[in-house]
Design a protein that fits this description.
DNA-binding; 2 strands; 5 helices; about 110 residues; homodimer
DNA sequence: CCGTCAAATCGTAATTCAACGATGATCGAC
DNA sequence: GTCGATCATCGTTGAATTACGATTTGACGG
């Protein structure tokens, strides 16, 4: 997968409110949570499972079978490519020709 | 707009190969480019214009009317919220209960 | 004023995504 | 082996995205 494709995949993984909520939940929860996620995001179990699948496919989280339930955890290293891309954009802090000062989008 | 919504909006803006290419193009090009973008991404003019609209709506780029054409430029500050979110995920480098070592996604 | 060039907008078809209920698979307890 | 619990998968529906050509808008030059 090319770097651009990786960026796109990671960005897509973050491009949904439910998935952001899941990530924040995993970040805030010290231990492992299984069906707690379903309760927290307020969507159907199958829908949450699909979101978890997408996050896992992007490599952002990993799932470990732990008895009858599954333990999900953040896999922050996967986000490096996206982080680098964003950082490189920020680094290019511009010698643009026609925008003298930073301003909000039109 | 809540912070999560901002993250989602920014992530959506990055969630398409053509838009990544446009951003890289703006990053690499010192001066201003107008219709050059259309030629570079290989899509129809109206499609590129739509991508530029999405990027502008997310605040990632800004467009300045420059005579007969429009000058686009990166607006890297807009990405701060996304960058911070990603950084916070990476910082939470885990006291998870059941993943002893980082590993690739299943 | 009129033609021209660049960009945005409109209308539309095709693809992808999100959500749900129902079903299937796997594990632990009994 | 059987039951109950937890999660994944399947099939379907509705909404959002993407792409295109065609048209409109706006800015210059003749």
């Amino acid at each position: 997968m090319s770097e651009d494709e990786t960026v796109v995949t990671l960005a897509k993984a973050l491009a949904h409110p439910a998935r952001i909520r899941i990530l924040r939940l995993l970040q805030a929860t010290p231990g492992c949570i299984g069906g707690t996620i379903v309760d927290a995001v307020g969507l159907a179990q199958s829908t949450v499972s699909e979101h978890l699948r997408i996050l896992k496919a992007a490599g952002v989280i990993s799932g470990e079978i732990d008895g009858p339930r599954v333990c999900y955890a953040l896999n922050p290293r996967a986000l490096s490519v996206l982080a680098d891309f964003v950082a490189s954009l920020k680094a290019a802090d511009r010698d643009a020709c026609c925008i003298p000062e930073p301003k909000a989008a039109t």
